[in-house]
Structure prediction request, 1860 residues.
Amino acid sequence: MSKIQSSHSDDTRLIRIRGARQNNLKNIDLDLKAGEFTVITGVSGSGKSSLVFDTLYAEGQRRYVETFSPYARQFLDRMDRPHVDSIEGVPPAIAIDQSGVVRTSRSTVGTMTELNDHIKLLFAHHARAFCPTCGDEVQNYSPQNIFESITRTLADISPDARVYLTFELRVPKNLPIETAEAALSSQGFSKILRREKAGTDTRLWVVLDRFKAGRLDRTRAIDAIEQGLDKGAGRIDVFLDEGEGEFLLRSYRHGFICARCDRTFSSPYPSLFSFNSPLGACPTCKGFGRVISVDPALVIPDPSRTLREGAVKPWTTDSYKEIREDLEKYAARKGISLDVPFEQLTPEQLKWVWDGDPDWSGKWQTQWYGVKHFFEWLESRAYKMHVRVLLSRYRSYVRCEDCGGSHLKQSALLWRYGTTENRAQTLARVPLNPARFKPLDARMSDETYDALPGFHFHELAMLPIEVLLGFFRTMRPGALKDEAMVLDEILARLSYLCDVGLGYLTLDRQSRTLSGGEVQRVNLTTALGTSLVNTLFVLDEPSIGLHPRDMDRVNSVMSRLSRAGNTLVVVEHDPQVMLAADRLIDMGPGAGKNGGEIIFDGTTRSVLGARTSTGEYLSGRKRITRAHPYPVNSKTKYLTLKGVTEHNLKNIDVHIPLKHFVAVAGVSGAGKSTLISDVLVPALERRLGKSTPAVGSFQELTGLIPSDIIFVDQSPVGRTSRANPASYVGAFDAIRKLFAASPEAHLAGLGYADFSFNSGKGRCPTCGGSGSEHVEMQFLSDVYLPCPECHGTRYRQSTLEVTIALADKRRYSIADVLGFTVDQACELFKLYPAVLEPLSHLRSVGLGYITLGQPLTTLSGGENQRLKLAGHLSEGLRVNRTGSGKIFIFDEPTTGLHFSDVNVLVHIFDSLVAMGHTVVVVEHNLDVLNVADWIIELGPEGGDAGGTVTFTGSPDELVHSAGTHTAVALKAWRETLNGHDQEAFFHFPDSTGQRDREDNVISVQGAREHNLKNLSVSIPRDRFNVITGPSGSGKSTLAFDIVFAEGQRRYLESLNAYARTMVQPPPLPDVDAVRGIPPSVAIEQRTSRGGLRSTVATMTEIYHFLRLIFGKLGTPYCPNCQIDCTSVTRDTLLEEIQTLYGNRRIEIYAPVIRHKKGVFRAELELYATKYRHVRIDGRKVDLLTETPSLGRHNEHNIDVLAGTWSHGMSREELEQTVDAALLLGHGVLTVTDLTDPSAQDRLFSTASGCPNCGMSFPALDPKLFSYNSPVGTCQRCSGYGILTAAVRKAQKADNLYNDELTQVDAEGDVTCPSCHGARLNPVALSVRWKDRNIADYGQMTIEQAAGFFRDLTLTQREAAIAGDAIKEIESRLKFLMDVGLGYLTLDRSAPTLSGGEAQRIRLAAQLGSNLRGVCYVLDEPTIGLHPRDNRMLLNVIESLTRKGNTLLVVEHDEDTIRRAEHIIDIGPQAGILGGELVAQGSISDIEACEKSVTGKYLREPLPHTGKPETRFDPKTDSRLVIESTAIRNLQIPQLDIPLNRLVVLTGVSGSGKSTLMHEVIYRNLAHAMQLKKGQLPQWENCVSIKGWEQLKRVLQVDQTPIGKTPRSCPATYVGFYEHIRNLFAELPESQARGYDASRYSFNTKGGRCEDCGGQGFITLEMNFLPDVKIVCETCHGARFDPETLSVTWKGHNIGEILQMTVEQGAEFFKSQTLISHPLNLMKDVGLGYLKLGQPSPTLSGGEAQRLKLVTELAKVREGVRSTKSKGTLYVLDEPTVGLHMNDVAKLIAVIKRLVAAGNSVIVIEHNLDMIAEADWIIDLGPEAGTGGGQLCAQGTPFEVSKTKTHTGLALKEFLKSHKP
Prediction:
């Protein structure tokens, strides 16, 4: 297909940011062009991350996450709404930063990049299996393969020998042999070769066919083999007769068989090779590859210690003194010295210490038990919390012994891909990594194994990526088409990884072991490999950890992402990345308050001339230099590390010159971090006597040993908002001592600890010293407000009154000091060295602008790095040129630093060296390498090609004499700074601005999901696309199961692992590739309008936001006194408790968890550290002796027992207990009266209490206002607002909140007398906000609510808390107004809505997020809409494409199809006859396709005259007369409804059709039909209905589901399956075996397969992973046991019949009228594609409705007048939903057949084909809501077309274009 370019203007391609004020940003306005590569740079702290991550990314991510459900949004880490006036045109955003490290062992490089997904696909289709016992290749025996094997076997046999192909049949004891043989004979099997007794049964070998060995006919033989495999349960036996009697030559089984060992193997499938699937994961370790166990390295952290010195760490405490004594006693007996270093003990002695006595029998009193049995004893006491804590210190993960760390079942490792030749070629490239992993259950010899071709899955995962790339390249030539397609995907992704310098990684490298830079680059290549487009990718310094040699590679990857149509915004400091961008934005001019502005915005070339700090350094006008370089000379002393062999290091010796600045360089993966972090640092720490984990492999550490080692890595400096710079560097301790020494502090009784905001009595008791009030907003971002008590100062007022005088003679409080910047503090504390000294370190690293109390969590990456450096500087201040000095080791210290910050850093290094210390840095930054005294370069490449020392010397020597990668890069950088060849080094973008763009299409290749037949299609992006075709042709499969699923899944992959477990991504579809796909949003058709608890407000989520507002800002009033419930003081609460319980014994609990789902393990462990008892769901639990196990999906209440108090105890003890409970329970506690067990617990709250009656209320919670939670619902009606028989029944069954009722009973409903329809209890209804309770807001119309919120005035606190929620409400109200629903009230019940109203509400809920660049997938958005409303909605939907979105609409509506820009027609028929791309293109392209059913109906639409054959005469014909209808908006004085006619009820959406049909006609008539003789009906919502006596019954056929379990299917629902079962039960074979009809039921025991319970599949559960349904291996999906399946009728068993489609079944059973009649009816209503056994839950609403219709039609037989069905009034609600034009014609004919049989049909319908065929039309209107409810027109279609109503106008145009 040719390239399709977007037709939209440049304005739609802009991301507009206006008024950005996040953190230090100063009202920034910025336009970013979509599809462009932009770099944001600037000094550290200038506001880069605030602009890029906290503003731009936050808004793009937040808006896309809004498209998920409120439940899902709780887990998706939705970012805070940024402080910005507006952001327009932002696409869904993905952040690729350094924090996305996944901690699960199931996440590997292979899973992160999706390479595993593609490789497992390759293995499933193209790998070969080899028997683990003998090593022979396992053959897949198909009928053709079996024939070839028989032919080869007979090659040496006499050609005249007779060959018999047979299958074995076992005849049970109760079945006479004669009967069995007669049954076989009737099926054509007349010869029995052998008969043998087998216990009580008889074995028959039935001859399928016979041949002479020399005349084996291929066709006949294969047919016989196929038949035999079917009849013989997958096995045939071949007998040979050479004249001396027949004998068994060989048996064959269908499937994968080892011929030598006769072992059977399962067929391969992709999930077999996935350790994230229960089908492939090792069952022992669940796919993690490791299990938790005691770690010897943790138990014995320092092997240099002796046993007496405490080498065994857990025994060094006094708690285990007895064990130390046992060790001494038994060691003496064994002759083992306790004074020898542990590492010098013999292997036998080490084994004795660890395992205990060799003859250990469990007698610990007389035998040495060892470390192993000590921990086994601890495990037996793990029910105690402190024991679990102890165990956790010494446990770690060890390799799983059952899978050897391969993660997979051993059966997966039998399959190999590749040849012997390319295996040898590949292994030759990895001598250090042989990639050999012999499966643990393989019994073949090593020689046999090594001779096998190719590699199994885990061996491939062990290969370095660059080697793996070479392996797959050798497999590409000659690959099959589908194999080549998968190989191309694999090769592309492997190439991307190599391009960004990660070729040294392996696919099984766990994500948790990757560095931040590696994670970011893996994610970058993953983003490229997923083919997401129209996405905003935000990157944080992708150059981190990357050698300059590889910078052009990462630039290339980012350029590809941009060319694909994505927008890249990158925060970066590396010059090679910065200047490769299309645009560069420089932030500054300074940091902190001095930054936040854009000081340069232009092309990357023009920045070289800019007068900014960035421009000065890039151009070379400023350079990074050292004041005092120290060249290495002959007097220099060295620290030498010899024989290092860890990981890829090749036995190297490294000499580090001391008292110099040393840089360790080399390409990524060369071994730098291994050398420094894994070997040098722990080796030095151990030499210096420090506790350290295991040391990497080396031989010797020699030379001059430094006096101390200080290792500064990239770990975060703080995780909570309480950590701050002053405390981090140690200055805050000195500051607190100054305040504590003041006279005012002594007078107030305040000590040193009381000036801490983390503890002590000086901190604010309300916020606990945090300074903020945390408002949890559930599915909105949480809000942090200044504490109302201390106003953000963190301290009590009495503490703040203590002040000290500083250098400026002014007095300051502790809060004032925390507000100082470092520069201010240094000046004011200059007379206090203890404070000044640590603060001066902050100043020296350029952090003078940050405040002393600034939370560390708000610092940028560069600020974090410098803060860590400042924290260590005080340890190296003393000049020490004569001693050994200290060694400072830094791991990439320039991370996040601008040139100017690097300059400061280098000067600090220079100062340390000048003082006599050694500085060692692992670094790629060329400016740092340029000024080092000494460079040690590792290489020459990464991975196995690295690990050697390629250079040692000065930078000058490196540049002039070495040809290494670092030498080349450093030389080029020096020349660039001198103004030479800048173009080559900087990789500027094309100066013309021209860039090739990829095709603007979503490309789907090889889709095989459901019935799709290897379908490939291109879908234009940014266009309005419609997918159409016959019902069941595969439209929804393409749109939802492939396009939507892939778009959403790929976005979800960017989220954290926890979020992905809670919001399970859609499963991977069966498709070869989907490329060019944007993040997707699905708006699916729902068959139900919602339950009785659902309202307009809940459906649009408006009510969720209102609940949040009321929960956070509502004012509780006493429901009894109607008085404002004010807060209660602690002292008042204490007095009340003492008054009520003064002479009693009580327990005081803190409610900590209320009505929340989860396991709460971490919370319970935290409580256990201070409290012993909790109460969980009413049960008291002792945490010391019990570990509670809670249901994850159940709601729980947890109370912590703060203490017990009784008469006689002091008031002080009561105060302490109450204070603890109030702090833990956030101002709420409950009291349990132990003296009177029958007394109810009493709640006490400082938050609210009635001053009149003393009643206390808990803190407000959004659940209090929920209709679905027992916390807030009205006890009388349980949140329904009405009382019906179904509600009362559910109340009796105690099943009120599990299943929601969906429709009102036929007998009607009564408004709840307790809540008067408000649904909530009195406490909830007594809470007010803005002088209204929440029910008052529900009574507003959408239009009124929009006006209310538009004019709303908020206080500053209200705006901070409710601002986001109100914006969400206003957005949804606006969209509801846009689609014409302003007349609805927010509390309008969902079941009372019309189909059109419900559909537009769902659209409003999804389309209001104002996203750009997404793919909206809609399922028939026009259902339920009148043609007038249809056009209105299409205008709204089309506006989405003008914003730059892609629309993919599944639709049958002709108007929608004709409005589309691109049409995709799937067909040609339904079910197995569909799934093909019939046509695509414009409307004319579809019409021109002869094969297209859609094209046919567009060319030749159904003809209509609008004049029925029999005209209705109101004077003579039967009719219903409804008088004075009045309900909601309906006001109809009289309405005549013809009987024995097809009557269509129509009108604009919301005009009152559903109300008239369901609440007037159906409800009244259904009630009247139930009356006993003589009873008179009581009419509702009208005065009377005349003529109802002519009806015998009333039947409603709606779209509610017909079955909730997979056991229900069309055959059982319609009822003909009973006839099929009876047919089988009457067969002679069934009767002989004693089988009755129940034997052929899959719902009862007897004949069904018990392994799957008759479902045909088994559901596998695996912790938090999605459930997996697999075909039952016992019955292979047939549902029944083998004996039942052996009974056949016309050659088919009962399982095969259930797999037939309706069309196939109708033909098969044409001789059985009771069965064929309903099947033909199903064909007539367009359901011929359904399978007879298809589970009912998989049916759409339209399919369900038509099945109900068929069930009724089956009672009306042609030529047979059924008295039961005649006189029935059928009420149908939009039966054309989901029907193609072709199927609509069939449905009309079927409905007319009902009318012809003497019945009446009333249909709510908007489909003009149906309307035009009506006998009578009733048209309501003229508008919707209050503007409707009137009878606008009635008559024949032709008569109505003459009116001026909306229906009349549409019908007039329609009839004109559809003339016969």
Remarks:
- The mean pLDDT is 85.
- Residues 1356-1378 form the longest helix (23 residues).
